[in-house]
Design a protein that fits this description.
Layout (H helix, E strand, L loop, with lengths): L6 H28 L4 H9 L18 H14 L1 H21 L2 H13 L4 E4 L15 E5 L2 E12 L6 E7 L9 E7 L5 E3 L13 E12 L3 E2 L5 H37 L1 E2 L2 E2 L4 H29 L5 H26 L10 H9 L8 H13 L4
Parallel strand pairs: 1-4
Antiparallel strand pairs: 2-3, 3-7, 4-5, 5-8, 6-7, 9-10
Helix pairs in contact: 1-3, 3-4, 3-6, 3-7, 4-5, 4-6, 6-7, 6-8, 6-9, 7-8, 8-9, 8-10
Bound molecules: acetoacetyl-coenzyme A.
């Protein structure tokens, strides 16, 4: 066993950290307050090879492994959680399923632009009436010759307001629940598709989450990803990979909280000494650091198993469950250590507090991660 990053993984970590510190962290507060999607820095992420990290170079990707992906996600999210989710969705929920299930034409058509940051992708599984019960989705795709005609509403589409292409899950058969779901690549300018207004979210406010409405939107059958009826499998396998990406995002948010808490504890004076001299504060810092390290190793372990082509669904869910909880706890502790000023917008603590909560909700709530983990414990052969 070797717990060290390779030279290449370390180089990716340093590159992502430097970019996060010089280009992302300085604008994080402003884009949050203005609720502004960071178009320019997302393009720069693409130029750095961070928007299609795991794609092979023939499709414009960086050809990196999944450990590198987790390391880069942590560093970018340490600078800004909104940039983290934008990067995660494009890499894990869009580039990956296209590379795994796409035809050569679909790969050539989409991947180079997505990897370079010239285009952005979004993933559209949830609906107003189905979130955790993904197989309950109701958006229909009726057969009409060489096309499918889509009707329905999709919800919580991260990156949706800016995306050029959507990975959309639809119902092609009403008689089978999860086996009646198919996956389509839908372009933004498809007639009959309306992209809704940006949701007013509590955190990650620079990212762009929308509803999509389909009203008799004709999508050519050549846009099917995989085969008809394969959509649920594609969604589940895609989310397996997405979940350790979100775990890495959570580690980054938690680390940002610890960094700020340490700095503030050294600087802030009370009772004639820095508050970091008090045991109450030191215990909080020690708990934060311990949980972050545990979350980081769970995340890297899930990525490591994926790199070795070993089953990683359970490990990804454990990583997401624990890392998102850690981020929420660290955001709370950081704000508490800052006291009153932490509750103002003058400090990043309140932004981290708002950003952290979504980590326990998207890409499967913590309760869904419990379901997945318990299912694997009860049926170890899965
Ligand atoms: N990989 C491959 N196949 C899988 C799988 C996986 N990880 N998980 C389940 N399956 C297969 C099962 O083996 C089963 O196969 P058969 O057809 O052979 O029977 C089939 O899928 C159905 O499995 P279940 O009976 O377990 O399915 P279920 O309906 O009970 O649902 C669930 C399982 C885990 C709860 C699933 O619905 C789920 O993950 N829900 C959460 C959805 C979610 O995470 N949504 C996030 C939205 S996207 C998002 O948040 C993005 C964003 O904004 C950033």
């Amino acid at each position: 066993m070797d717990f060290r990053l390779t030279d290449e993984q370390e180089l990716i970590r340093r590159t992502a950290r430097e970019f996060a510190e010089t280009r992302i962290a300085p604008i994080a507060a402003a884009i949050d307050q203005e609720e502004r999607f960071p178009v320019e820095t997302v393009r720069e992420l693409g130029a750095l090879g961070l928007m299609g990290m795991n794609l092979p170079p023939e499709y414009g990707g960086a050809g990196a492994d999944f450990v590198s992906h987790a390391v880069a996600m942590e560093e970018i999210s340490r600078g800004c959680a909104a940039h983290g989710v934008i990067m995660s969705v494009n890499n894990s929920l869009v580039c990956w399923p296209i590379s795994a299930y796409g035809t050569d034409e679909q790969k050539r058509n989409y991947l180079p632009d997505l990897a370079s940051g010239r285009k952005l992708g979004a993933f559209s599984l949830s609906e107003p009436g189905s979130g955790s019960d993904a197989a309950g989705l109701q958006t229909t795709a009726a057969d009409d010759g060489d096309a499918l005609v889509l009707n329905g509403t999709k919800a919580w589409v991260s990156n949706g307001g800016q995306a050029d292409v959507y990975v959309v899950f639809v119902r092609t058969s009403k008689s089978h629940k999860h086996r009646g779901i198919s996956c389509l690549l839908v372009e933004r300018d498809t007639p009959g598709l309306t992209v809704g207004a940006k949701e007013k979210t509590m955190g990650i406010r620079a990212s762009s989450t929308v509803q999509l409405s389909f009203a008799d939107a004709r999508v050519p059958k050549r846009c099917l990803l995989g085969v008809e009826g394969q959509g649920f499998e594609i969604a589940m396998k895609t989310l397996d990979g997405g979940r350790f990406g979100i775990a890495a995002q959570a580690v980054g948010v938690a680390q940002a909280c610890l960094d700020e808490a340490l700095a503030y504890a050294a600087e802030r004076q009370a009772f004639d000494q820095p508050i970091g001299h008090f045991q109450a504060i030191r215990f909080m810092l020690a708990d934060m650091a311990t949980n972050i390290q545990a979350a980081r190793w769970l995340t890297l372990h899930a990525a490591f198993c994926r790199d070795r082509n070993e089953p990683f669904t359970k490990w990804g869910s454990m990583a997401k469950l624990f890392a998102s909880r850690t981020a929420v706890q660290c955001a709370d502790a950081n704000l508490q250590i800052h006291g009153g000023v932490g509750y103002t917008r003058d400090f990043a603590a309140e932004r981290h507090y708002r950003d952290a909560k979504i980590l326990e909700i998207y890409e499967g709530t913590s309760q869904i991660q419990h379901v997945v983990i318990a299912d694997h414990l009860m049926h170890p052969s899965r």
